[in-house]
Write a structure and sequence with these properties.
Helix content is 4%, strand content 53%. It is mainly beta and 438 residues long.
Length: 438
């Protein structure tokens, strides 16, 4: 684990008063200008079993209120990739992979047909490889290796549409540079990986999205010899087009993110250094990419953006910004189909906010999660957007129990799940809370 464990979760009781005071301050700061949460959250549920550290969760809920989650547990000397299916309750964990080799970073997509694709990276004793498994008819299929052996592959991402087609993307070392590669899953077969980025310079931080027709968009950053540039490629009719630059030449850009709706429209977002600070830029795709626009004010450094585009062509974006108090806050902006709103803080600057995540439905409701550090522990915090306003923040994790890696997913049936890892006094456990829109 990357996170330092506390000796006992209950030791946080000594800090209870100070942390509660901070939480009350946050609520008081925001309740005067922000509505109450549009979601009520059920009690937290253990998704993984006690006794072993569980981490790297990934999860998605579909429009029929079913959900799927995956995570990794340490059962040394083995690393085990586990999953659980939710249909009213979380099912007993199922092992996908058990290996004495290092296995990390699973990513999951799950559609309305209760089909899922899980991808991950595993060390095979010589190099890192990308692997995948398909969930269909209630069970996981054969494990397949997607990347070619002989060189390391990392940072896999996955997208899937309503028909069950999927597209995986990752970076692979070609002996000189890191190259972005992709493989299509269609008709129960994965295609041979295809190079997307141009050889000769490093490329990484890839993202992938698909529409209902099987078209896809890929996004990444690539070094052009002087700066890191955001690039994109479009997949249609069985082929990828030549990569095109989205960010401004001569400026370093980072943190690319991508969202595509079922109709094939998309929005990308990234941070770029404008000469004085990092700002957030976004570009829209409707058959082609438009000129990027800046949606942060440029007053403070901004980074780690997230973006979601819904079927109505509306979008929500969040990011972290270094506030005047030197703490990182979460800022947000919404797109009504024409213009982006003025950015607003949705977390208080009393404590630093990290690890932002975002979900949005087709009715323009949104949920933003993050972690806040309270003295020696991290807590999972959530704010919801409904009726054109952000709610006051709410803590979802157990108070004074160190928590990390929040994941958020919402459907179009007034439901949402938040998943995270939380220290129970002995191990990190995967926790979940179901949100119901009120």
């Amino acid at each position: 684990m990357l996170y330092q464990k506390d000796s006992d979760c209950s030791r946080g009781r000594m800090l209870f008063n100070s942390k509660s005071f901070v939480l009350q301050c946050i609520v008081l700061l925001f309740c005067s200008s922000v509505q109450l949460s549009a979601f009520t959250w059920d009690a937290a549920t253990d998704v993984s079993l006690p006794g072993n550290d569980a981490y790297n969760p990934s999860m998605q809920i579909n429009d029929f209120d079913n959900a799927m989650a995956v995570w990794v547990i340490d059962d040394l000397p083995n690393r085990i990739l586990q999953s659980s299916f939710y249909s009213g309750t979380w099912g007993a964990p199922v092992n996908l992979v058990s290996t004495d080799q290092i296995l990390i970073d699973p990513k999951l997509v799950f559609n309305d047909g209760d089909n899922a694709i899980c991808v991950w990276q595993r060390f095979n004793g010589t190099e890192w490889i990308i692997q995948a498994s398909i969930y269909s008819s209630g069970s996981w299929g054969t494990i397949e290796t997607l990347s070619a052996t002989g060189q390391n592959s990392h940072d896999v991402r996955i997208a899937m549409n309503s028909s069950g087609e999927g597209m995986a993307i990752w970076k692979r070392f070609d002996g000189t540079n890191w190259i972005i590669q992709a493989s299509l899953y269609s008709a129960s077969v994965w295609t041979v990986p295809e190079n997307l980025s141009i050889a000769g310079e490093d490329a990484n931080s890839s993202q992938i999205a698909m529409d209902s027709m099987g078209n896809a968009l890929a996004l990444w950053k690539r070094y052009d010899g002087a700066n890191w540039i955001i690039q994109a490629s479009y997949y249609s009719a069985g082929s990828w087009n030549t990569p095109e630059n989205l960010s401004t030449t001569g400026q370093d850009s980072d943190d690319p993110r991508l969202s595509m709706n079922s109709a094939g429209d998309a929005k990308s977002i990234w941070s770029t250094f404008n000469g004085s600070c990092n700002v957030i830029e976004t570009s829209s795709f409707t058959g082609g990419w438009d000129t990027p626009s800046m949606i942060s004010t440029g007053t403070y450094d901004a980074q780690l953006p997230c973006i979601v585009l819904n079927s109505a062509g509306h979008a929500t974006a969040i990011w972290t910004a270094n506030s005047s108090s030197s703490n990182w806050v979460i800022q947000a902006s919404t797109f009504n189909g024409t213009t982006w709103s003025t950015q607003e803080d949705i977390s208080a600057s009393v404590v630093s906010a990290q690890q932002p995540k975002l979900a949005m439905d087709n009715s323009d409701n949104a949920i933003a999660t993050r972690i806040n550090r309270f003295q020696s522990d991290y807590a999972i915090m959530v704010a919801t957007y409904s009726a054109s306003a952000w709610s006051a923040s709410q803590e979802l994790s157990q108070i004074n129990c160190d928590s990390h890696e929040p994941k958020i997913s919402m459907n179009n049936a007034d439901k949402a799940f938040c998943l995270w890892e939380e220290y129970d006094g002995a191990n990190y456990i995967i926790k979940a809370r179901l949100g119901n829109q009120t």
